[in-house]
Design brief:
mainly alpha
Protein backbone atom coordinates (compact mmCIF):
# COMPACT_ATOMS: atom_id res chain seq x y z
CA UNK A 1 0.00 0.00 0.00
CA UNK A 2 1.38 3.43 -0.98
CA UNK A 3 2.19 5.84 1.85
CA UNK A 4 -0.64 8.19 0.84
CA UNK A 5 -3.24 5.42 1.06
CA UNK A 6 -1.72 4.16 4.30
CA UNK A 7 -1.91 7.59 5.91
CA UNK A 8 -5.51 7.98 4.80
CA UNK A 9 -6.41 4.55 6.16
CA UNK A 10 -4.78 5.35 9.49
CA UNK A 11 -6.49 8.73 9.56
CA UNK A 12 -9.95 7.26 8.97
CA UNK A 13 -9.38 4.74 11.74
CA UNK A 14 -8.15 7.39 14.17
CA UNK A 15 -11.04 9.70 13.19
CA UNK A 16 -13.55 7.15 14.43
CA UNK A 17 -11.67 6.78 17.72
CA UNK A 18 -10.45 10.37 18.09
CA UNK A 19 -12.37 10.70 21.36
CA UNK A 20 -9.97 8.19 22.91
CA UNK A 21 -6.95 10.51 22.77
CA UNK A 22 -8.09 12.64 25.74
CA UNK A 23 -8.52 9.44 27.76
CA UNK A 24 -4.97 8.39 26.93
CA UNK A 25 -3.63 11.84 27.82
CA UNK A 26 -5.58 11.87 31.08
CA UNK A 27 -4.46 8.38 32.11
CA UNK A 28 -0.77 8.94 31.36
CA UNK A 29 -0.89 12.44 32.80
CA UNK A 30 -2.39 11.17 36.06
CA UNK A 31 0.42 8.63 36.44
CA UNK A 32 3.08 11.23 35.63
CA UNK A 33 1.54 13.73 38.03
CA UNK A 34 1.38 11.23 40.88
CA UNK A 35 4.98 10.08 40.60
CA UNK A 36 6.62 13.41 39.73
CA UNK A 37 4.46 16.23 41.14
CA UNK A 38 6.36 16.41 44.44
CA UNK A 39 9.62 17.05 42.53
CA UNK A 40 8.15 19.16 39.69
CA UNK A 41 8.97 22.87 39.85
CA UNK A 42 9.98 22.71 43.55
CA UNK A 43 10.90 26.43 43.51
CA UNK A 44 7.22 27.43 43.27
CA UNK A 45 5.42 28.55 46.40
CA UNK A 46 1.76 27.70 46.98
CA UNK A 47 0.45 30.91 45.41
CA UNK A 48 2.58 30.42 42.28
CA UNK A 49 1.55 26.78 42.10
CA UNK A 50 -2.12 27.77 42.20
CA UNK A 51 -1.53 30.48 39.59
CA UNK A 52 0.00 27.89 37.25
CA UNK A 53 -3.01 25.60 37.73
CA UNK A 54 -5.46 28.45 37.07
CA UNK A 55 -3.50 29.42 33.96
CA UNK A 56 -3.78 25.83 32.74
CA UNK A 57 -7.54 25.97 33.25
CA UNK A 58 -7.79 29.24 31.31
CA UNK A 59 -5.87 27.66 28.41
CA UNK A 60 -8.29 24.73 28.46
CA UNK A 61 -11.26 27.13 28.47
CA UNK A 62 -9.72 28.91 25.48
CA UNK A 63 -9.71 25.60 23.62
CA UNK A 64 -13.34 24.98 24.59
CA UNK A 65 -14.27 28.48 23.45
CA UNK A 66 -12.63 27.89 20.06
CA UNK A 67 -14.62 24.67 19.69
CA UNK A 68 -17.91 26.27 20.75
CA UNK A 69 -17.40 29.25 18.45
CA UNK A 70 -16.53 26.99 15.53
CA UNK A 71 -19.54 24.72 16.06
CA UNK A 72 -21.90 27.66 16.54
CA UNK A 73 -20.86 29.25 13.25
CA UNK A 74 -20.53 26.10 11.14
CA UNK A 75 -23.02 25.08 8.45
CA UNK A 76 -25.37 22.15 9.22
CA UNK A 77 -23.84 18.68 8.92
CA UNK A 78 -20.29 19.98 9.20
CA UNK A 79 -17.91 20.28 12.17
CA UNK A 80 -19.77 17.60 14.09
CA UNK A 81 -18.99 14.87 16.60
CA UNK A 82 -19.80 12.03 14.22
CA UNK A 83 -17.74 8.91 14.87
CA UNK A 84 -19.07 5.59 13.66
CA UNK A 85 -20.58 7.15 10.55
CA UNK A 86 -17.17 8.32 9.38
CA UNK A 87 -16.60 11.58 7.51
CA UNK A 88 -19.68 13.80 6.99
CA UNK A 89 -19.80 17.14 5.18
CA UNK A 90 -22.61 18.79 3.23
CA UNK A 91 -20.55 21.88 2.46
CA UNK A 92 -17.12 23.46 2.87
CA UNK A 93 -16.91 26.07 5.63
CA UNK A 94 -14.75 28.91 4.29
CA UNK A 95 -15.72 32.01 6.30
CA UNK A 96 -15.22 33.14 9.87
CA UNK A 97 -12.74 31.00 11.77
CA UNK A 98 -12.48 28.70 8.74
CA UNK A 99 -11.04 31.59 6.76
CA UNK A 100 -7.96 31.68 9.00
CA UNK A 101 -7.41 27.95 9.70
CA UNK A 102 -8.63 24.72 8.09
CA UNK A 103 -9.03 22.65 11.27
CA UNK A 104 -10.22 24.98 14.06
CA UNK A 105 -11.87 22.18 16.05
CA UNK A 106 -8.53 20.42 16.37
CA UNK A 107 -6.88 23.69 17.37
CA UNK A 108 -9.49 23.90 20.11
CA UNK A 109 -8.84 20.31 21.16
CA UNK A 110 -5.14 21.01 21.35
CA UNK A 111 -5.55 23.87 23.82
CA UNK A 112 -8.21 22.04 25.86
CA UNK A 113 -5.92 19.14 26.59
CA UNK A 114 -2.75 21.22 26.71
CA UNK A 115 -4.19 22.81 29.85
CA UNK A 116 -4.76 19.36 31.33
CA UNK A 117 -1.21 18.32 30.44
CA UNK A 118 0.14 21.47 32.10
CA UNK A 119 -1.29 20.37 35.45
CA UNK A 120 1.41 17.71 35.68
CA UNK A 121 4.02 20.50 35.80
CA UNK A 122 6.27 18.09 33.93
CA UNK A 123 8.12 19.57 30.95
CA UNK A 124 8.83 16.25 29.26
CA UNK A 125 5.21 15.19 29.51
CA UNK A 126 4.22 18.43 27.77
CA UNK A 127 6.70 17.67 24.99
CA UNK A 128 5.34 14.13 24.69
CA UNK A 129 1.77 15.43 24.58
CA UNK A 130 2.54 17.86 21.76
CA UNK A 131 4.31 15.13 19.78
CA UNK A 132 1.51 12.60 20.33
CA UNK A 133 -1.13 15.15 19.34
CA UNK A 134 0.78 16.04 16.18
CA UNK A 135 1.21 12.41 15.06
CA UNK A 136 -2.39 11.49 15.95
CA UNK A 137 -4.21 14.44 14.40
CA UNK A 138 -1.93 14.89 11.41
CA UNK A 139 -3.29 11.61 10.07
CA UNK A 140 -6.89 12.54 10.86
CA UNK A 141 -6.51 15.87 9.09
CA UNK A 142 -4.94 14.16 6.09
CA UNK A 143 -7.87 11.72 5.82
CA UNK A 144 -10.43 14.51 6.20
CA UNK A 145 -8.80 16.57 3.50
CA UNK A 146 -8.69 13.64 1.11
CA UNK A 147 -12.42 13.11 1.68
CA UNK A 148 -13.22 16.80 1.15
CA UNK A 149 -10.99 17.03 -1.92
CA UNK A 150 -12.83 14.13 -3.57
CA UNK A 151 -16.27 15.41 -2.63
CA UNK A 152 -15.93 19.13 -3.38
CA UNK A 153 -13.10 19.20 -5.88
CA UNK A 154 -11.85 22.60 -6.99
CA UNK A 155 -13.92 24.48 -4.41
CA UNK A 156 -12.08 22.74 -1.61
CA UNK A 157 -8.66 22.85 -3.28
CA UNK A 158 -8.88 26.62 -3.82
CA UNK A 159 -9.85 27.30 -0.20
CA UNK A 160 -7.24 24.88 1.19
CA UNK A 161 -4.47 26.44 -0.91
CA UNK A 162 -5.18 29.82 0.71
CA UNK A 163 -5.81 28.72 4.31
CA UNK A 164 -3.26 27.28 6.78
CA UNK A 165 -4.00 23.85 8.21
CA UNK A 166 -3.38 24.37 11.93
CA UNK A 167 -1.65 27.66 12.80
CA UNK A 168 -4.17 30.48 12.17
CA UNK A 169 -3.39 33.41 9.90
CA UNK A 170 -5.59 36.19 11.29
CA UNK A 171 -5.01 38.60 8.41
CA UNK A 172 -7.02 36.24 6.17
CA UNK A 173 -10.20 36.73 8.24
CA UNK A 174 -13.49 36.89 6.34
CA UNK A 175 -16.79 37.68 8.02
CA UNK A 176 -18.98 34.73 8.94
CA UNK A 177 -21.60 33.71 6.41
CA UNK A 178 -23.90 32.33 9.15
CA UNK A 179 -25.10 33.80 12.47
CA UNK A 180 -23.87 32.24 15.71
CA UNK A 181 -26.08 29.35 16.79
CA UNK A 182 -25.82 29.36 20.59
CA UNK A 183 -28.18 26.42 21.02
CA UNK A 184 -26.10 24.22 18.75
CA UNK A 185 -22.88 25.22 20.51
CA UNK A 186 -24.35 24.47 23.94
CA UNK A 187 -25.74 21.10 22.83
CA UNK A 188 -22.52 19.90 21.29
CA UNK A 189 -19.99 21.27 23.77
CA UNK A 190 -21.76 20.59 27.08
CA UNK A 191 -19.88 17.31 27.48
CA UNK A 192 -16.52 18.98 26.90
CA UNK A 193 -17.04 21.50 29.72
CA UNK A 194 -18.35 18.79 32.04
CA UNK A 195 -15.37 16.48 31.44
CA UNK A 196 -12.87 19.31 31.64
CA UNK A 197 -14.05 20.48 35.07
CA UNK A 198 -14.19 16.95 36.49
CA UNK A 199 -10.72 16.08 35.14
CA UNK A 200 -9.26 19.29 36.55
CA UNK A 201 -10.78 18.57 39.97
CA UNK A 202 -9.52 14.99 40.01
CA UNK A 203 -6.00 15.97 38.99
CA UNK A 204 -5.96 18.67 41.65
CA UNK A 205 -6.86 16.09 44.32
CA UNK A 206 -4.24 13.71 42.95
CA UNK A 207 -1.63 16.46 43.01
CA UNK A 208 -2.46 17.29 46.63
CA UNK A 209 -2.05 13.67 47.64
CA UNK A 210 1.19 13.27 45.69
CA UNK A 211 2.70 16.32 47.41
CA UNK A 212 1.38 16.08 50.99
CA UNK A 213 -0.48 12.78 51.31
CA UNK A 214 -3.48 14.88 52.31
CA UNK A 215 -6.58 15.93 50.37
CA UNK A 216 -8.76 19.01 50.71
CA UNK A 217 -11.92 18.06 48.86
CA UNK A 218 -13.68 21.42 49.31
CA UNK A 219 -11.64 23.89 47.32
CA UNK A 220 -11.92 26.15 44.29
CA UNK A 221 -11.72 23.19 41.92
CA UNK A 222 -14.64 21.55 43.71
CA UNK A 223 -16.77 24.62 42.88
CA UNK A 224 -15.61 24.44 39.26
CA UNK A 225 -16.49 20.73 39.08
CA UNK A 226 -19.92 21.36 40.60
CA UNK A 227 -20.56 24.04 37.96
CA UNK A 228 -19.49 21.61 35.24
CA UNK A 229 -21.65 18.74 36.47
CA UNK A 230 -24.59 21.02 37.25
CA UNK A 231 -24.56 22.72 33.85
CA UNK A 232 -24.36 19.34 32.10
CA UNK A 233 -27.35 17.95 34.01
CA UNK A 234 -29.41 21.10 33.43
CA UNK A 235 -28.68 21.09 29.70
CA UNK A 236 -29.51 17.38 29.43
CA UNK A 237 -32.80 18.00 31.25
CA UNK A 238 -33.69 20.92 28.97
CA UNK A 239 -32.94 18.79 25.92
CA UNK A 240 -35.15 15.94 27.07
CA UNK A 241 -38.01 17.81 28.77
CA UNK A 242 -38.28 21.05 26.78
CA UNK A 243 -37.71 22.56 23.34
CA UNK A 244 -35.58 25.43 24.61
CA UNK A 245 -32.41 24.08 22.98
CA UNK A 246 -34.03 22.81 19.80
CA UNK A 247 -33.32 24.61 16.53
Amino acid sequence: MALQEELEKQGNFLFVYRGHLPIIIFAIGAVVLYFTRAESLPFLNEAQDNLLDYSAFIISLLGLFIRAYTVGRAAPNTSGRNTTEGQVADDVNTTGIYSIVRHPLYVGNFFMWLGVAMLTQNFWFLVAYIFLYWVYYERIMFAEEQFLRRKFGEKYVLWASQTPAFIPCFKKWKSNALPFNLKKAVRQEKTGFFLLTVVMYFLNLLGQFAEKYQINYLNTWAIVAILGVGSYLIIKFLQKATNLLAD
